[in-house]
Amino acid sequence: MSNYAKYVELTKLTTEYARRMKRLSDRIFTEVARPTNPKSMKVVKLFSEKPVNLRKEVHSYYPRHPETGKLMLMLRYYGLYRDEHEDFREEMKRMRALKGKVEPERKSRKTFTNIFEGKSKQVNKKSEES
Questions:
Q1: Are residues 79 and 73 in contact, defined by beta-carbon separation less than 8 angstroms?
Q2: How far apart are CA 114 and CA 121, in angstroms?
Q3: How far apart, in whole angstroms, are the C-alpha atoms of residue 30 and residue 28?
Q4: What are the tens digits of pLDDT across the range 72-103?
Q5: Which of 70, 55, 64 is nearest to 113 (CA)?
């Protein structure tokens, strides 16, 4: 009989020594040291899992909306994508301008031209510094 088989038989015994060895073994191998009810085991299971914010299926669930939005703006600017809602808004703005009902200019919105011009300004500054 191997030493491992002897150890397994020893842990099944109900002597004080066997119970202490079982408890020590459980502590060493990060198991619950004393018998617990299922409700407490649920808590043990929750704490033994990887944290939610580190699990890949949680933190990379949603698509990359900002990058996708900017890509769609670029495609629309190049004429490769048709955004009917934005077309409608531009048409309404044009019709109001023809009627003379233009709103006062607000702070600039994030549009492709603003984003593109901002990037080109940054590139020009870097090239001037070099």
A1: no
A2: 10
A3: 6
A4: 999 999 999 999 999 999 999 999 999 999 87
A5: 70
Closest CA to 44 of 52, 35, 53: 35
Quote the tokens at residue 58.
């949680």
Taking the C-alpha atoms of residue 82 and residue 72, their distance in angstroms, rounded to an integer, is: 9
pTM score: 0.37
Q: Give the DSSP H/E element, type plus range, for residue 81.
A: none
Provide the phi-psi class of 7: left if phi over 0, else alpha when psi is between -120 and 50, else beta. Answer: alpha
Alpha helices of 13-105 — where are they, by DSSP H? 16-28, 38-48, 56-59, 65-78, 84-99
Residue bearing tokens 């191998």: 29
